[in-house]
Amino acid sequence: MPKTWIYAIGLDIFSQLSGASKRAHTVLNSRDCTGESAETDGRKKRKITQDENENEDENVNEMDAGEVLVRPRCIAQGEFQAEVLWVGWSETLLRIDGRVELRGFSAYETETTKLLQLSNGANVVTGFGWADLLGIVDSYGQIWRFKPGTRTTSILYVDKELSSAFDNTVECVTIAGTEHVAVLYDHGTSITTFSSLPDFYAYSETKKKEWRVGSRKRFAQHQHLQFTCMRAGEVHFVALDSGGQVYTWGANLHGELLQPRGSVVRPRVVPALEGIPMRDVATNGFVTASLSQDTKDVYIWGWTPDTRIIGLPNAGDDIAGIIDQFDEDEDIVIESVAVGNGFIVLASSNSITCEICVWFAGGSDLTNMFGLPRSETLVKVNGDWSGKRSDECGVMVSCGTGCIFVSVYQK
Fold this sequence. Notes:
The protein has 411 residues and is mainly β. It has helices at residues 56-61, 160-165, 197-206, 365-369; strands at residues 4-11, 68-78, 82-87, 91-96, 99-104, 113-116, 124-129, 133-138, 143-146, 156-158, 172-175, 181-185, 190-194, 216-219, 227-232, 236-241, 246-250, 264-269, 278-284, 287-292, 298-302, 321-323, 332-339, 343-350, 356-362, 375-381, 393-399, 403-410.
């Protein structure tokens, strides 16, 4: 099986990045903390830990008293399939070989590392949350929730009523900082936006009743479209359809919708990007970014309160900026884009030098804490990934409010 490495840097809220209680060798796929994964089908056990070549004392010293990883650190490596599913304010969901680990702190769970045992081998496909992790969606379209006030391993359960309200075809559930909830379902062809969490939870109870006009905003005018992903920022949502077109809706306080007027209640295609197929979208705070399908251009819009990012248009403009730092280098391919709180991160590869690079622009007091300077242009983030050849490995980046994850995987 191909090897995977996951690196982390940044603000470690309640051991969100490093794992339980500063343990240098956090076990990712074990219930008994032995470092070995128990295979139910009799396959050979294997080690799944952090970099075995790193010294435990050195790892602990990489964190200062404020719980900050001041340089990129490998938090997982091994011959397994690994993915950073979701990064919230104080929680991170990692999937390791189909099993899910919750790191950090949530409203109903105070342990820093928790393995989520999903029934029938279901895989988590999206995270759900705001400042606290509230629920997840598995590959069967069922919505899982945490039981309030419970501190045992049985905190996770399927909300059958809520799942059935969407006919068990939920693809994604996400929530903005304003607590507006958006649900993508019907195999990606329908999006419903709720004005609050209580409205979202009450939907299952009122499914069989006449829903009050205006209480929910359903996007069903274009059933022929299929949305492939959906993201949430502080006050808005962004989605990408199968044709690569970008849609936004929600509040438009700082131009984060890239729409010619104010707030939008239903997903609407972004005029400035119409006809330009995109591969992925990312958002956080008041900034949104999209990566073109040819992996050459990154379009950005919105507003950051701290350091200005070159290419980011003025707040309120209905035009998208473009990061053109790599225009003169035709050998650069942008593999992934992510947005944090006031900063943007790119991962690139080079077909000539075969180098994998991670780039950072923007910044805030949070990013200053872990040694990344505020910068209007992209600066290179040094890490072990630079020694891996791009013709052998791929790279993905993910961001939280004040942290960065870099996932490197063998192709």
